[in-house]
Every structure is written in C-alpha cells, then in structure tokens.
C-alpha cells in the first residue's frame, strides 16, 4: 500500500514539475515597437550625457559657461564648455542669470552643431554648517546642577 502511494505521489509530482517547466518555457508573443511613437513622446534620447561638477565661469552675453569636473576614467579634472538655449530647464535656480561661479551643478546635455547644449541644469544647494554649540547649551543639565554635583563629597573607600 505504501509503495502504491509513493509511486502515485512521484507520478503526480513529476507531472506537476513537467507542466511547470513547460509553463516557463513558453515565449510571449513579440510586440513590434514603433520607433516613431517612442521618439515623439521623448522616451528615448540616446545622445544625452550627464556631468557633475563646479561652475568655473559664466558668460551671460553668449549664454555659455564652463564647468570643472572629474573624469573618472582618467582620474583627471577636466573643463567642459556648455551652452544654454531657450529649451534649457533649471532646478534650484530661476534662470541662467542666477547661475554663478562656484555653484555645484548636475547637468544633462547633448552635442549639437559643435556645441554642448545644456538640457537640464540642477544647482545643488549646499547646507550651511551649523553653529558649534557649547557643551552647556547641548546638555540638559543646568550650570547650577553641575556645581551641585561637583560639590558632593566622594564616598569613602572601605
């Protein structure tokens, strides 16, 4: 009786595993992708690059600025000239006139007609260091309590 149950259990288990494997082996039908639709809604932009660094100087008249960044492939600091146009978006500042030397920025850009065109400029606002507080200011013990603790006699050793 036990061998019949064991055999039946093995057959059922093998069938379940077999059907499970077949279920994973089935391929889903390929849906053709219309490249025109993707480019129209802007999901794919293969020419976009990204750089993070510090603004070295800004030329407001020509709408260009230089950024100093670290090239991690060569471990060298490099400089990149970028151009701003009417389509450039800004984060952390209102417009190009708010950009200044010393700002830390992350920039999405693309190369077009011998220029690096900034698509998005995000200025990082660095937090100001907090004031160093005295130990008395950060402690919940008041100065008169400290004096009372210091004035207590030490217990005698036995």
What secondary-structure arrangement, pairings included, does this model have?
Blueprint (H helix, E strand, L loop, with lengths): L1 H24 L9 H7 L7 E11 L4 E8 L4 E16 L12 E9 L2 E10 L10 H4 L4 H9 L7
Parallel strand pairs: 3-5
Antiparallel strand pairs: 1-2, 1-4, 2-3, 4-5
Detailed description of the structure:
The chain is an alpha+beta fold. The protein has a domain at 49-124: OB fold (Dihydrolipoamide Acetyltransferase, E2P) (Beta Barrel). It has 4 helices and 5 strands; from the N terminus they run H-H-E-E-E-E-E-H-H. The protein has helices at 2-25, 35-41, 135-138, 143-151; strands at residues 49-59, 64-71, 76-91, 104-112, 115-124. Strands 1-2-3-5-4 form a 5-stranded mixed barrel. The longest helix is centred in the N-terminal third of the chain and has 24 residues, at 2-25.
Summary, kept brief:
The protein is an alpha+beta fold and 158 residues long. It contains four helices and five strands. A hairpin with a 2-residue loop joins strand 4 (104-112) and strand 5 (115-124).
Can you tag this structure with a few keywords?
alpha+beta, OB fold (Dihydrolipoamide Acetyltransferase, E2P)
Cα(first) to Cα(last) distance is 82 Å
Q: Remind me, CATH topology of one domain?
A: OB fold (Dihydrolipoamide Acetyltransferase, E2P)
Major sheet characteristics: 5 strands, mixed, barrel
Going by helix content, strand content and strand pairing, the class is alpha+beta
Question: Could you tell me the radius of gyration in angstroms?
Answer: 34 Å
By DSSP (H or I, 4+ residues per run), the number of helices equals 4
Strand fraction band?
Answer: 25-35%
């Amino acid at each position: 009786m036990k061998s019949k149950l064991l055999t039946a259990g093995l057959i059922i288990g093998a069938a379940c595993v077999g059907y499970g494997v077949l279920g994973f082996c089935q391929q889903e039908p390929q849906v053709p992708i219309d490249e025109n639709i993707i480019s129209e809604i802007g999901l794919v932009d293969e020419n976009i690059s990204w750089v993070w660094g510090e603004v070295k100087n800004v030329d407001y008249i020509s709408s260009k600025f230089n950024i100093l960044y670290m090239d991690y492939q060569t471990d060298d600091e490099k400089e990149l000239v970028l151009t701003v146009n009417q389509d450039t978006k800004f984060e952390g500042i209102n417009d190009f006139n708010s950009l200044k030397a010393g700002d830390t920025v992350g920039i999405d850009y693309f190369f077009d007609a011998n220029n690096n065109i900034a698509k998005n400029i995000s200025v990082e606002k660095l937090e100001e260091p907090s004031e160093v507080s005295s130990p008395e200011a950060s402690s919940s013990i008041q100065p008169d309590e400290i004096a009372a603790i210091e004035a207590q006699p030490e217990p005698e050793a036995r």
